[in-house]
Amino acid sequence: MAFSSHVASRLEEQAIELPSWAFGNSGTRFKVFGTPGTPRDPFEKIADAAQVHKHTALSPSVALHIPWDKVDDYAELRKHAEDHGVALGTVNSNTFQDDDYKFGSLAHRDDRIRRKAIDHHLECIDIMDETGSRDLKIWLADGTNYAGQDDMRGRQDRMHESLQEIYARIGEGQRLVLEYKIFEPAFYHMDVPDWGTSYAQVAALGERATVCLDTGHHAPSTNIEFIVMQLLRLGKLGSFDFNSRNYADDDLIVGAADPFQLFRILVEVIRGGGYGKDGDTAFMLDQCHNIEDKIPGQIRSVLNVQEMTARALLVDREALTAAQIEGDVLQAHGILMDAFYTDVRADLAAWREERGLPADPMQAFAESGYLATIAQERVGGVQAGWGA
Ligand code: LRH
Ligand code: MN
User: Fold this and answer.
1) pLDDT tens digit string along 43-77?
2) Whose CA is nearest to atom 11 of ligand 1?
3) pLDDT for 335-384, tens place per residue?
4) Nearest atom of ligand 1 to the alpha carbon of 216
5) How much helix, strand and coil, in percent to the nearest 5, is found in the chain?
């Protein structure tokens, strides 16, 4: 049974931004593995990201991370992206790899350190003006490791002041998205540990400030779709960092560890008006392919999001609402599970072919020989990574 025209057209509204850093080398504290053909600069990262969009039409933009993607000429980088059929997306700041930020950045006690961190964010907004990016994404490693190490209240107040100065520079058509994370690299408290803190901080800034929800940044067994519902209800779910995890911030392929959770999250995104062309919630991947090939890893990821989106779009909302009003617990639950258990893979393959896309993008990319080509061409130089 093919998709209804409604579902088929809703699927065309999907756009999942790719993280430039997923195409570079990444790993753990134990080892960062290299791979033949790994990009050496942002231009090669964007060329690789464009391969994902070429085979899926799902990922029209690439997020940058500063300074990992620093270049002399952002207009040239923007043109390069456009020549490859993609756009430059979210600009991610980085105040987690400089010795000065050992005890924090925007929340730091020292005026000089806070000044430095604020100026880095103002530089990121200058870059957004050149790349045409909408979102400045701020994730702070700020926090403490031991109780009593610092005054948590004072840190919140200093962070607020710093964010206010950054927010004042956010221009027309631009947004600030503040990402939260429950722990790591701080192991006692993070200054933005949860959605409530991020919401409190962005609500105090203004309407162009929103929350970023990274699916790997919660305590185990957190009902993430409840947070999605609430942030959409409050009009503050600015963006997702999609990935999956079994234990902590594993940054694995989205949907790999818990496809049902991804489905439940997308059901709430659609129900809350955050999906598609009318939604205001950006979808981004934030993943690291430590051992698997990176481009196929990203293709698999966007296909996983597409597949669970298709299933979520199949939820019979009318019947579900009727069962909920009835208080028919098992009927209501059953209706949601029917959609989740609907195998949409063949319909998606047909949907792709109808739009001139390969029915099986993973196979099409494998047969393209692109990986062998870049492994051959990209000899010498330094493979890109987190530069930690
Ligand atoms: C922090 C984080 C953040 C990025 C980084 C690459 O864990 O999720 O979004 O800056 O990963
Ligand atoms: Mn993230």
Assistant:
1) 999 999 999 999 999 999 999 999 999 999 999 99
2) 286
3) 999 999 999 999 999 999 999 999 999 999 999 999 999 999 999 999 99
4) 8
5) 45, 15, 40
- To test the ligand 1 pocket, which listed residue (32, 92, 95, 244) has its Cβ within 8 A of the most ligand atoms? 92
Q: Kindly provide the residue ranges of all beta strands, DSSP E only, lying in the chain, ordered along the sequence.
A: 16-19, 61-65, 87-92, 135-139, 143-144, 175-179, 189-190, 209-214, 237-242, 282-285
Burial class for 157, CB neighbours closer than 10 Å (0-12, 13-18, 19+): exposed
Q: Model's pTM, two decimal places?
A: 0.97
What is the best residue among 18, 62, 214 to mutate for testing ligand 1's pocket, by most ligand atoms within 8 Å of CB? 214
CA 91 to ligand 1 center in whole angstroms: 12
The answer to whether residues 77 and 128 touch, using CB atoms and an 8 Å cutoff, is no
Q: Kindly identify the ligand whose nearest atom is closest to the C-alpha of 213.
A: 2
Structure tokens at 215: 């699916």
Residue pointed to by tokens 């496809």: 259
